[in-house]
Amino acid sequence: MPAVGTPVPRKEGLDKVTGRARYTDDVVLPGMLFGRTIRATIPRGRITGVHLDFDPHGFTVVDARDIPGRNVVALIVDDQPCLADGRVSHTEEPVLLLAHADREALLGATVRLDYAAEPAVLDPRASQTVFKELTIQKGCLDDGFGSADVVVEGEYRTGHQEQLYIEPQGVIAVPEDGGVTVYGSLQCPYYVHHALSVLLALPPERVRVVQLETGGGFGGKEDYPSIIAGHAALLALKANRPVKLVYDRLEDMRATTKRHPAIVRHRTGVTRDGRLTAIDVEVLLDGGAYTTLSPVVLSRGALHATGPYRCDHVRVHGRVVQTHTPPNGAFRGFGAPQTQFAAEAHMDRVAAALGLDPVALRERNVWRPGDTTATGQRLGPDCSAADVLRVAVERSRYHERRGTLAGRPGAGIGLALVFHGAGFTGSGEVKLASRAALQLTATGARIRVASTEIGQGARTVLAQVVADALGIAYDDVEVAEADTRFVPDSGPTVASRTSMVVGRILQGCAVRMRERLGDLGPADYHARHGPFEVEGQYVRPAGLDWDEAAYRGDAYGCYGYACDVVEVAIDADTYEARATAVTTVHDVGRVLHPVLVRGQIEGGTVQGLGYALLEEVAMRDGAMANAQLTNYVIPTTADVPPLDVVVLETPYVEGPFGAKGVGELPMDAPAAAAVNAIRHAGFDVREVPATPERLSEAPCVSR
Ligand code: MOS
Hints:
This protein is of the alpha+beta class. The protein has 18 helices and 28 strands. Helix 4 packs across helix 5. The relative contact order is 0.13.
């Protein structure tokens, strides 16, 4: 029986539901110390004094002088120190590390820091420091606006958002073999491996990174684990003992990365009958104190800034700048939720300016196979944006409901249509050159990849692909631990790439293994000839081409499409907007695992509704002032309306069994759909989260 397309049990499911799965904080090693991070308390300045107000007996103390290699968190641009070296660029900047065998003693230690404070830049519009700037250009804006009958402008804003994985960040570092091994909760073992090698001046073979069971990531464990792993490793090497460093929720929320806040301006030219003639977008992202992943977040954000619409004359200009808050980083969607919120909130305003139905405007311009994107990418037969839109409108009975709700005070319905590129941007996948391996075992096959299971079902899906490509049972496929000593670098677990890109490499490995097995099953072959291994590497699909300098070409291997329709009810006294019904239609190519795909869609939709309506990071003096679950409010099951999930399956020929990526797409549409519903209810909100405060101050808009 084929595994692909069926809801096989999760590989790690039984361990999780029985409590056998061990997360970082469950692991106790002999002689282990606990670690703690002493952080800055001002956003910007010089450190003029460090006072240890405790008896140092039994403590290991580490500062920047203890770093054997380079004091950087190695990633894209090496501007972020692992430990502050005299300067502070955000509150929460790590300054000193402590370790002690006794947790109470550790928490009781007091460290005072003296500073010469400097003025902090907290408004991105006032920042003079640009991390990355880029322009996407197609056609000629003057021509486009010249043929427009109407020009519509608008500014849209999105706030920070906390990933809020259920398991906070944590690692354990163990000095061994003249180097260090780090176990932890993380998405990208080889990112951590590289960062440790640079920080500790260790050759790669002396650094080992092992991912433990991980309770969610959402991008929050893409780059940050390199910092916490560096800290634990420094303490462990100095103490010559294992060191566990696990954040509590408060520290995790205050210190680790968030989604980049954005200010996006649109200027759109359109003919009276609704044809888009010019799209001009200005994107400003708040990067926080250091570069981290900001250049690529900006890139993805800019590449998704037009929405899935045809237009001959486009300019998208993007900047990401420094402010003195903790650095912002990866979060599911990676820039696209911000820019597509703006694009789709703006589309409804364009429709209103023309007196057109929002669906009619979108139908008029939506991408169809053969159309080109802003970078000139020609869309293939898997471009199903128009189908997704049509099904969402029918299924939600959008027009009928729009009429009905228009007569009800405080009620509204809104829609958003989005796309999401799967895999690394541009030539990213070529540069990653991911490798994956498949071993023949006595009973079947074992997958060896650095791609991590973070709750999304990666191990299960990869095993399904291998099982069917090899022609063996799903249960006979094992997945090796993501341990850099034993697995090849299949790239980071990010960017909606694991099923599609790594799955495709493994599919190729399985096909080659099957050829070598000939007429024998794996067990028979193994018994006669012994084990063997097949390694595969990413091969760029034919016809894809990207020009990084010009920002032209095929920005992604393919795109998934989604359309959300959200109904809201607004409380007349409190101005609280609640989603009351959601229809969400996704096309992510062939569905490998129906329950996991549905889980990604439901989870992403709810996370998107939180972004739209509830989740407000309150910044005070450059730090998160509401770093608790009592006042950083995320949706609970009680807040989730009935979700009508519809999945279309337009295959992508280069994906394994026709699959595209699904991880991020569900995050893109909810915010705009909700805000468009709020607008339909009469409130001109152009910012998320659309909190009661914002609704109470919003101008009225006629329905
Ligand atoms: Mo991600 S936001 O590409 O981990």
